[in-house]
Amino acid sequence: MKKLSLIAIAIACLSCANRALAQGFDVNFAFGTLHSAETKYNTTTGFYYPSLRGGLYLGAGADFLLHHNFGIEGDLFWRASQGVYGLQPYRPIFWNFNGIWVPKINKHLAGEVVAGIGAEDVRFYGIVNYSPFSGYTNYASSVHFQGDVGAGLRAYFWHGAFIRPEVRLYLVNNNAEFSSDVVLRYGGSIGYSFGR
Prior knowledge:
The protein is mainly β.
């Protein structure tokens, strides 16, 4: 009886996986850079606030189309090398959960529109920090809620493989460490669509 139950569960899982792939599942690896407002000087504090611009950003993401061309998407982008904030090394990390729409244009092209929420996690290195959950780390984080919208164009070149130029606008809540709450990321990615 136990073996029969395990076989039934395995068949149900395989059936669901087959249906999921029929809907569409995409993965991608990306690169790009950021653009934001220039460095600003605060006359009250006498401090220069740097801009979140430049640098190579790497990322990864995946989406799952639930109904026709609509689905959910998640991604993570981080600065490939540490920047310098005054004398402090830092690295911004952006993560998001989005709704996605992928309208088919023709056999080899598909659009992509995303919108959702996430966070900007700025990690300042060289600071020993203790948390009862994660233990000791060599950085301190400053996390800010954000909303994002973006668009891309998928160009399929071999089966489900595609390249995608893309642009994303981040609206970061209270981005107090930097010169602007508005950050633009642009770049490209390479990915694969399963169940296309």
